[in-house]
Model the fold of this input.
Amino acid sequence: MSKSSSKVSKAKNRAKKNELNDILIPDMSSKVDELFVRWFSLPGTQQSLKESLRKIRKTSKEKEAKSKTSENSNHNNAGNYTMDDDDDESLTKKTTNQPILDKPLVSPRRSPRKRRVSIEFNISGRSDADSRSVVHKSSGVALDIPKFYFPRGKPTSNADELKSTLRNISNVFAESGKERLTRRELATVADACGLTAYWKAAIFKASVSGDDVSTVTKDEVITMWERVAKDNHDNTSKFISMLAKPGNCHLDFDDFLCLLLDIVECHPGLMFLREAPEFHTRYINTVVARIFYIVNRSWSGQITLTELRKSNFLQVLDLLTQENDINAITDYFSYEHFYVVYCKFWELDTDHDLVVDRLDLSRHANGALPMRLIDRLLCGAVTRWDSSDHRQGNMSYVDFVWFLISEEDKTTPTSIEYWFRCMDLDGDGFISMYEMEYFYEEQIRKLEQLEIEPLPFEDCVCQMLDMVKPALSDRISLRDLKQCKLAKIFFDTFFNIEKYLEHEQKDPFAPQKDGGDANEPSDWVRYAMEEYELLVAEEHANDQQMSLDMSYNDETDSLIKEEFAKYGMDSNSRGGSSDNDRGMVGSQNFVSASSLYGGGGGGAGDGGEHDSNRFTAVSNIA
Done:
């Protein structure tokens, strides 16, 4: 009996160990692939591979020479010798027995579930044309595989296209009658190059040289275009080549400044902004931050050629020449969106030092954000822009642009990644139950302060797991959140108490929007539109009140006395009260009523004429 019970206990312990092993075994495939790529790119590895390849070729040539001499001596069939499978097999056996290097580098083992990243190195020293030539074993015929990868665009076979563009550039300078053109005058040059008008800033930046940085000559533009068009064969690669710093193949934050400054100065929809140069930098920073938010999918702070090609930025840039209303273009350049972002930032930044701290951010959305989230945002774990001092717990304006867009639209890939980084405390690529509970604890306290019974954490986790349907039952990955289409509800449950209550009050059986309609505005566009209308209405109300206060003067009292005298009323004794009493019409109220009802201030020159509008205004207030 004791033996059977001991066997049962051992079996249970073994089962528990197996369960722990299944849970605790990490997925090392991505790390192994990364180590393999590093090992493969080491100079020692490259040298080892070259030496091995050289020895294999040398052995192959020696074997081929021996076979030819043996064929000639035996008077066998003449002709070119082609290795068959047996020869190839024997060659492999012979070369494997020969030592290649004294101590070759050891390649780390990789997981069988992941395939290796294919990296192409030209270690043989041959040209690209030779590397595309492959000998078929059975027929011995060389097959030419055409090049199919063109990272800088597919070259055109028309050699006259470049000459025609250079000729058009020369004609533009000749028609202008000037030897040097300014940046604004390069719109015709951009058109001659087959580009839209707002490429002129990029053309100017790439062409300018020497001491005079305000104008460019014809020779400078032609030299620039020859250099750019030689290696770049599509607009995306040309754009990066023009704006990037020398030696860079990516765009940094400051590379867009000249382009945006030109748009501010030249676009007809931003004419009103030219009178307020102090806001030029704020608008430019907002637009560049939005460009990086949408285009820079790698979060590296550097926009690569592939990222720019996959985005719609150049198409939107070309659209600026067709649309005069800058607010009609909701991507990147909308002034209304900038106005909303900057006003929200200005409300939080009470000391107006262009950074918000922990206390400032806690006032956002009427204190709906938990403090644990705010601490996570300010610690530098999400974004790492140089302008933010995360050691002091401050958030810069550029960081705030990312925060506000992500807060109001949690359906985009960037926003999902943004909040996933906030919630993934240990950086293991998963949101565990501990991390969910860490943020939900503060939500429970907020609900109790509102006298709302909170949902127990166990029930909340069950709801979240049922909604997301993760691949692993006890943790949620970034892939799971992007696939479930309900990441907005998931993050609002842990990060925003007001939006969480809104989701709870909605009909659970109501059809969910899948976001498949391209004409449907995004959550951010809807939010910016509503907030802009509220801000403008508030601004108009403030301006109207200020104008009423400014229009008050001491002469108004005499006008009021004169009007009351016409109708036999005494303004000093009416109602037996002073000017401050509710029953008395004061001069300031009269001005307000006159402006509202269209009445004007009469004087001695009225000739005793009766003003019905003014009388109606006064009688209504009285």
In short: The beta strands are 133-135, 142-144, 180-182, 215-217, 355-356, 395-396, 430-432, 475-477.
